[in-house]
Amino acid sequence: MKPLGLRDVIGPIMIGPSSSHTAGACRIALMARSLLSAPPCAVEFVLYGSFAHTYRGHGTDRALTAGILGCLPDDERLREAFDLAADMGVDVTISPDTVTEVTHPNTVDVRVRDERGDFMEVRGVSIGGGAAKIVRIDGIDVDVTGAYHNMIVYQDDAPGVLAHITACLSGRGVNIGTVRLHRTEKAGDAFTVLELDDVVSDEVIARILEFPAIKSVRFIPAPSLSRPADAITPVMYPASARKTFQQLDFANAEELLAYCREEGVAISRAFADREEALMSTRPAEEVTTEAYLDHVLQVMRASATRPLSQAAPSMGGLIGGEAQRVAQLGDKGLLSPLFWRMSAYALAVMETNASMGCIVAAPTAGSSGVLPAVLMALQDTFSFSHRQMRDAVLNAGAIGYLITRNATVAGAEGGCQAEIGSASAMAASAAAELMGASPAACLHAASTAISNTLGMVCDPIGGLVEAPCQMRNASAASNALIAAQCALAGIAHIAPFDETVDAMYRVGRALPAELRETALGGMATCPSCMAFNVQLSKA
């Protein structure tokens, strides 16, 4: 598997409200577009499973439309995708299918005709965290993940095709990661799907097409879900890069802490060293870590402040205006300035997310309000520098990376504790480091935050990332500061971080399916909430 990095945990930077239903849907359509020989002129999206039931409230229909038009998941034009399609002369049809059973709940068939008159049908699934894969092309089962560069060769199943392809690639120094052949039958139609480490030029593609049995070649670049145009920097990669990364690829908190002690560095510096080593193994132009962190902080600040002056009604209609009301109450309420600001920021980010604004999934869209709320409120209160804020994000990234690697941050797999609990742990550790805590104390803060949310169920009303998600983000931010305060006071958590993460994972796996993002249990089944479900289905 592709090693996890900062961008996998603090990201994607995306238009809300759902990393799987919005960003992942956009990515599916983008991948489908890359397979076309000409721009699309008509497309039908057939939605299945969860996509079919909640597409309006999640903006899945808009995200798919924007993706087929070439928009990235962080493009604010996702909200106006239908108008954009009309302006471009692309006919879009949305067809929810709530009857047909599919293997994955987030499944869509993209049936598209391009300007040359060619027709193609692609099935894609959104696998979480903004990631997606193509599982079928024109009736042939494939497996195109998009984690790396992909090249898809449509061919007759004939001898010599693979040898020709690999010769063309190796002759131009393109390294092949994996090769898979998918065919209808022996000597029938087939697709060869290659995962590549390098970009393939038009010259190489033209040479591959010279083979008589090859009908078409499509190149799908690895996703770059948020790439500031002025921050692309080419890097030279030493031969020892992979070995260096392996030495810094901390498998657990124990290894991370050992490195911090040996080098005398904070968690943020240790994770920055790992990120630098990871980036040096990727033979492609990438946004520098510093530029990415700057972009993250910029989006976080905007998503946490905009709704304070202008309420942002959600797509599903459950939330909107709460952040502004808390901010207006301010010092007249029960909370200190630090805590009421933090609460308002957390509510605001979730309003931004639910109204299809731009947010940073940290680690998910459903928990995207926790980390920015804590960081922005602390910066407002203590005037931390921009560099300190960068380090805080790196620290949070390290905690999120360890949880993602050894457990899960997906509500569908581990309940709300996996999303909100992880975000709270990330924020607690970051806050502790900002206030001068040692790496060990940061891990105690993260462990405490997780244990305080252990067993929290994922029960979104109407299946939307709105309620009770919004209020839980504010609560998780408060939990993070309490956990950090205890760690700063020298209070150690009863179990090491790795054991606490394992406990969270086991608890999540033990939760019944009704309490893991299905909207079939918990608050989602209260009579008032069920009435909203009926109203939403008729909308």
Automatic annotation (TrEMBL):
Reactions catalysed according to its record: L-serine = pyruvate + NH4(+)
Pathway(s) this gene product operates in, as recorded in its UniProt entry: Carbohydrate biosynthesis; gluconeogenesis
Keyword terms: 4Fe-4S, Gluconeogenesis, Iron, Iron-sulfur, Lyase, Metal-binding
Record carries keyword Metal-binding: yes
Cofactor requirements of the protein: [4Fe-4S] cluster
Chain coiled-coil ranges: none
Pfam families documented for this protein: SDH_alpha, SDH_beta
Entry EC number(s): 4.3.1.17
Domain ACT, first and last residues per copy: 150-222
GO molecular function: 4 iron, 4 sulfur cluster binding; L-serine ammonia-lyase activity; metal ion binding
Biological-process GO terms, alphabetical: gluconeogenesis
Family as reported in the entry's similarity comment: Belongs to the iron-sulfur dependent L-serine dehydratase family.
PANTHER family assigned: L-SERINE DEHYDRATASE, L-SERINE DEHYDRATASE 1
Annotated protein name in UniProt: L-serine dehydratase
Organism: Berryella wangjianweii
